[in-house]
C-alpha cells in the first residue's frame, strides 16, 4: 500500500514594491533615496498657494501637492492611473485634478472620480493613485512616507521646540546638491563648528580641540563635548520621534537681543540620490516684548547671518565625493557620525527585508 504525501511547501511571500515606485528597493537604494515608514517635511506652507499645484520630488519619486477647495493639502503620486501622464500638468478642479492627456479626474484620496472619455468604465471609483497622509504644522507641510501599501502612519508629533508656545521660530528652507545622509553626518559632527564656521557671528568662540561622549536617552542620544559648554556648537541631540530630527543650541551674545541661546531644529528629506531638501527652524525662548524684539532682529539682521553659515555647510557638502563616507579615517570626534550611520544602515536592511518578503 502506498501513501501520498499531502504536505506542501509553504510559499515564499512575493517581493513588494515601495509605495510610489514600481519595484522592490534594496538596502543600498533605501540608503540612497531615503528610509520609509516615517514622517518627513515636504515643503514650506507658503510655497503652496490656494488653488495652486506644486510638483516635488521626494525620496526619488515625483509627487503632486495641491490644496483642495477647503484649503486642505493633498499629496498624490504625480502619475495619472490611466496612462501615467503627470497630473501636475493637468487642471486643478477644487477637490480633484484633471489629467491633461485624457481628462481623467483624480481626487485628493487618489480615487478616480470621472473618466470623461468613457463614463462608467471600471477605472471610475478605484483608488488607483498613491495618496499620502499629510499634516500642515510649524509653517511646513509634512507627509508620512510609507514603505508598503499596508504601512499605517505613526502618530504625528512635532519636535519639542516647535510645539511649545514659549519658543518663537522661523523656518529656513534650502535645497542642496548633495546626498541626504551627508546632512545628518554634518549635524552629528559638532566639532566642525570651530573650523568651518569659525569666522561666523555665533561660532567664533571656544577651543578648537575637545573630547566627546554619547549620552543615551529614551528617544535617541546626545553627542556632546565633555569639556566645553555654551561656547560654540557644543552638543546635538538626535531624536527618533514621529520624524527623525536634530535639536541643538548655539550661544548668542547680548548684541543678538533677548532670549538666551539660539535653538535649531533640523530635518532633511531626500529629493533623490544626489539632492536633499533641508529644513531648519531657528528658535528662541522669548515672551512678551522680548518676542517682538527677537523677531524684528531676526528679520532685519540675524537671518542673513544665519544663511551665510548654512552656505558654509553647503559649500563643503556639495563637493564631497559620492563615496566620501567609504574612504575615511574616523577618530573620537566622529562617534556621533558612526552612530547615526549604524542606525540608518540597520533600518535600511530591515526595510529591504520587508520588501523582499523575508520579514
UniProtKB/TrEMBL annotation:
Positions in coiled-coil regions: none
Record's keyword annotation contains Glycosyltransferase: no
Pfam families in the record: Rieske, VanA_C
Domain Rieske: 39-143
PROSITE patterns: RIESKE
Keywords: 2Fe-2S, Dioxygenase, Iron, Iron-sulfur, Metal-binding, Oxidoreductase
Molecular-function GO term, any one: oxidoreductase activity, acting on paired donors, with incorporation or reduction of molecular oxygen
Biased composition (Low complexity): 1-10
Comp. bias regions, Basic residues: 11-20
Stretch list, region Disordered: 1-20
Name under which the protein is recorded: Phenylpropionate dioxygenase-like ring-hydroxylating dioxygenase large terminal subunit
